[in-house]
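Archive entry: two folds, one per protein. Generate the first.
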Amino acid sequence: MTVAGDPKRVRPIHPVFAFLLAAGVPLYLGGFLSDITYGNSAEPQWANFAAWLIAGAMVFTGLALLWALLAAIRPSGRGLRPVLCLLLLIAAFVLGLVDSFHHARDAWAIMPAAPVLSALVTVAAALAAAVGLSTLRAGEAP
């Protein structure tokens, strides 16, 4: 049993940070699915959908990155989890920026790299959300 004032007690993350972490994942996933649909249909509107979904996800990823940077700088006794979350968010942000620039090309010029980039950024964002949203330390029962 832990005492309320125990500094080693794992506290849940802030709800706003949890929202920012989780909000980018479905948007990146939607961009990835839109890229796949564009590859199968050649309808340019799907490329536009993907570009807008990725741009929206970049807003949430950027805000989560800022929050994670502040959390990593502040000493909280949480170990390496905030730093790993920060590194994964940096990777997701950089990959998302590259993906966003790639989607700025003309319609079919984004293929075949667009689904690959979107898949990579989706995985990076999902991993960052999984690490950031995990609140249990290793060895503790759920």
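Generate the second and append.
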Amino acid sequence: MTKMAKRKATVLLADVPEDKRFWCADGRALKNLSELGSALDDMSAETFAHHSSEDKNDFAIWVRDVIGDKTLASDLGKLLDRSKAAQRVASRVAFLTGKSKSSG
């Protein structure tokens, strides 16, 4: 991974404005990466398939365009398995949380 500043990590973990929230097909509104990870953890296969397929990946687009995390977006765009996507988001949140608490 490339070196990341504390400030950038904090920005990537922050809540998005209300009008930029991710609306899941199951009715949930997600406001940050942590909520995305939790939602992916217990999301139905049907809901996941609605947002993620060979042709599109709404999660990756939201993470890239709204959150601003191109690294995670690229990874999510390649994952068609809900549990792997959940694990990748959880891993990224843990990484960013560590960076946001570091002294640099």
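Annotation attached to the second fold: The beta strands are 22-23, 29-30. The mean pLDDT is 95.
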